[in-house]
Amino acid sequence: MPWSRDQLAQRAAKELRDGFYVNLGIGIPTLVANYIPPGVEVTLQSENGMLGMGPFPYDDEVDADLINAGKQTITELNKTSYFSSADSFAMIRGGHIDLSILGAMEVNQHGDLANWMVPGKMVKGMGGAMDLVAGVKRVVVVMEHTSKDGASKLLKACTLPLTGVRVVDLVITDLGVFEIDKHGDKPMRLTQLADGVSLEEITAKTEAAFVNAL
Fold it and tell me: What pTM value is reported for the model?
């Protein structure tokens, strides 16, 4: 079966390394905060000016003044610090964030990313996605493998406006995990399948070129 949203977050959390400064995007990536592996110490950064985010609060812990960039209520830690958006983006643009885990609408086989708008639909703004993919050391995308109409979201070429060109290092979908050679022209490498997903199924649902590295 395809991975659930929580299973996707759990798999993405395996990309965390001790000592990392990490930015989590809106949607499924925010769930990663609940699955940090035991013994791994990471510091979560939010674009709206918070360094050191804790997990989501229980109902009796909610503080409406503590929110992440997606306007979800969060918790603080003993090490939490607060600062302006200007300082927040200075961290991102200055290369001080080790890893960003983002959602996406499309990713192509060379690591191009489209995740900020659909032409003709209302856009609240691009947020910090372009800064993140340009300034962060490693970019991991977490998304569903296909769109609602069944079309592949792993493509030979993106059709939506790009957030960044050759910026994605790893894609985790509900069907499997792909490594991307964003600095070269090698095909993506399939390194893991979700439990119960066959190679035939993931091949049929993937437009992008890839090799089996299982």
Answer: 0.93
| Three-state SS sequence of 87-114 | HHHHHHHCCCCCEEEECCCEEECCCCEE
How far, in Å, CA of 211 to CA of 214, rounded?
Answer: 9
Closest CA to 141 of 21, 11, 4, 47: 11
Q: What is the largest CA-CA distance in the chain?
A: 51
Residue found under tokens 């003044």: 65
> Smallest Cα–Cα separation from 2: which of 176, 151, 147, 149?
176
Task: List, for residues 105-141, the tens digit of each pLDDT value.
Answer: 999 999 999 998 777 676 666 678 899 999 999 999 9
Helix (H/G/I), strand (E/B), else coil: 208? coil
d(CA 93, CA 70): 20
CA distances from 7 to 10, 13, 148, 173 (A): 5, 10, 20, 10
Cα distances from 173 to residues 115, 120, 129, 131, 189, in angstroms, run 15, 26, 19, 23, 13
Which residues have a Cβ under 8 Å from the Cβ of 53 and sit 6 or more positions away? Answer: 33, 44, 45, 46, 68, 74, 75, 76, 77, 80
Q: Which backbone phi and psi does 121 adopt, to 5 degrees?
A: -110, 150
Q: How does pLDDT run across 3-16, given as a tens digit for each residue?
A: 999 999 999 999 99
Q: Which residues are identified as catalytic?
A: 47
* Neighbouring C-beta atoms of residue 161, cutoff 10 Å: 15
Structure tokens at 179: 């490594």
